[in-house]
Design goal:
By secondary structure, the chain is of the alpha+beta class. It has one domain. It has two helices and three strands, in the order E-E-E-H-H. A three-stranded antiparallel sheet has the order 1-2-3, with helices on one face. The chain is elongated and about 40 Å long.
Protein backbone atom coordinates (compact mmCIF):
# COMPACT_ATOMS: atom_id res chain seq x y z
CA UNK A 1 0.00 0.00 0.00
CA UNK A 2 1.32 3.41 -0.90
CA UNK A 3 1.57 6.28 1.53
CA UNK A 4 -1.24 8.84 1.66
CA UNK A 5 -0.95 11.81 -0.67
CA UNK A 6 -2.22 15.36 -0.26
CA UNK A 7 -2.51 17.69 -3.20
CA UNK A 8 -4.25 20.91 -4.16
CA UNK A 9 -6.42 20.63 -7.26
CA UNK A 10 -7.81 23.47 -9.35
CA UNK A 11 -11.48 23.14 -10.28
CA UNK A 12 -13.91 25.39 -12.12
CA UNK A 13 -15.00 26.84 -8.76
CA UNK A 14 -11.52 27.37 -7.33
CA UNK A 15 -9.18 25.03 -5.46
CA UNK A 16 -9.92 21.92 -3.41
CA UNK A 17 -7.68 19.61 -1.40
CA UNK A 18 -7.52 15.96 -2.40
CA UNK A 19 -6.27 13.19 -0.10
CA UNK A 20 -5.72 9.70 -1.52
CA UNK A 21 -5.21 6.65 0.68
CA UNK A 22 -6.07 2.95 0.58
CA UNK A 23 -7.98 3.22 -2.68
CA UNK A 24 -10.16 6.14 -1.64
CA UNK A 25 -10.02 9.81 -2.49
CA UNK A 26 -11.42 12.47 -0.16
CA UNK A 27 -11.91 16.04 -1.25
CA UNK A 28 -12.14 19.04 1.08
CA UNK A 29 -12.59 22.70 0.33
CA UNK A 30 -10.99 23.83 3.59
CA UNK A 31 -7.31 23.19 4.17
CA UNK A 32 -7.68 22.39 7.88
CA UNK A 33 -10.07 19.53 7.06
CA UNK A 34 -7.66 18.13 4.50
CA UNK A 35 -4.69 18.35 6.85
CA UNK A 36 -6.54 16.57 9.66
CA UNK A 37 -7.66 13.74 7.37
CA UNK A 38 -4.17 13.46 5.88
CA UNK A 39 -2.59 13.16 9.35
CA UNK A 40 -5.13 10.50 10.34
CA UNK A 41 -4.35 8.55 7.19
CA UNK A 42 -0.60 8.83 7.88
CA UNK A 43 -1.12 7.50 11.42
CA UNK A 44 -2.98 4.48 10.02
CA UNK A 45 -0.29 3.94 7.39
CA UNK A 46 2.52 4.04 9.95
CA UNK A 47 0.67 2.03 12.60
CA UNK A 48 -0.11 -0.80 10.19
CA UNK A 49 3.49 -0.86 8.93
CA UNK A 50 2.10 -0.49 5.43
CA UNK A 51 4.84 -0.61 2.88
CA UNK A 52 6.95 -2.79 5.18
CA UNK A 53 7.51 -6.11 3.40
CA UNK A 54 8.75 -7.79 6.58
CA UNK A 55 5.46 -7.00 8.32
CA UNK A 56 3.62 -8.71 5.48
CA UNK A 57 5.84 -11.80 5.45
CA UNK A 58 5.73 -12.54 9.21
CA UNK A 59 2.35 -14.06 9.92
CA UNK A 60 1.48 -13.94 13.64
CA UNK A 61 -0.49 -17.18 13.27
CA UNK A 62 2.06 -19.94 13.95
CA UNK A 63 -0.18 -22.57 12.29
CA UNK A 64 0.46 -20.95 8.91
CA UNK A 65 4.13 -22.05 8.68
Amino acid sequence: MTAPTLKRVKTGDGFIWEIAYAGMIRQHSQSWQAVIFFHQAMECYQRDNAGNLKALLHNPDSTQH
